[in-house]
Amino acid sequence: MKRLRVIVLVHADLVPPESIEGLDAKEVERIKTEFDVADTLRKSGHEVQVLGVSDDLLPIRSSIEGFKPHALFNLLMEFQDEGAYQAHVVSYLELQNVPFTGCNSLGIQLSRDKALAKKILRFHRIPTPRFAVFTKGRQVRVRRDLKYPLIVKSVDEEASLGISQASVVSDAEKLRERVEFVHEKVGTAAIAEEYIEGREFTVGVIGNDRLSTFPIWELRFENLPEGSLPIATARAKWDLAYQRKVGIKTGAARGLSEELTSRIERMTKRVYRVLELSSYARLDLRVTPEGHVYVIEANATPDVSDDEDFALSAKAAGLEYPQLLQRIVKLGIAYRPRWKLD
Which domain does 205 fall in, by range? Predict the structure, then answer.
């Protein structure tokens, strides 16, 4: 790949240094994705400019006009401290008519709203748990057609924000309590969906029109305390000490039949297409002991640091981290929205 000018777009508080030497573990963890991407692109021979943005879009336009990038590597997960504005920033990049990495604005909007995404999946007869949405400021009315246990979470927040063992509820009283928790503590509407007992998988998908899947990845709990459920809580995702304590590990799924593997791969590609995703994404699934596959949600902007599941599963497929980033940049440059296709 020829030498490119690349702007790495990050939050203003997450602009990484050129070297992490001398930083403690917490400081490194905070900016790891941003550092990994910028550092790897530089080492791959590209001219890289890191741009921090928080509440003003003008610096993006100024940098595009001054630096004249071949592509922007978009790592901006929120704008004006709102994750919901993520898609609007991407819309702005689309209006600037500059190539960028990551999902298009429509795909982000459709997948980020968990309820809307599930409605689309159900319309296309793609298995996903039944659910109900509880809007802030309205009385919690419990639907009788939902089967307990239910898992309650934010309808649009990511990274397991607000999810704990208490998120799985077994009666109407607990449901009301957890919905109110999401309303008050997370600050969003809540979604309650039927809890699917089984193994938890993620699948990385990459591509615009021609799609590829990475090996099916599994979240495993080796020392889970009695009475706890194997769910991806915020603590399970981000608390390193807790991960060690309960033996949380991720890796290539074991013991899957060829038929089940093929079915999961086909389903994830279909979800990717019906939710209008592009560039790359991660799909979260649950598979019951009987082999029934349910799509839990789609993440249009998964973490792409070198030691997270997306990159690790790519490596298991033979795609080393520098090559993964190169491929993502190529996909960004090649992407054309439907309304620009001849």
Answer: 199-340
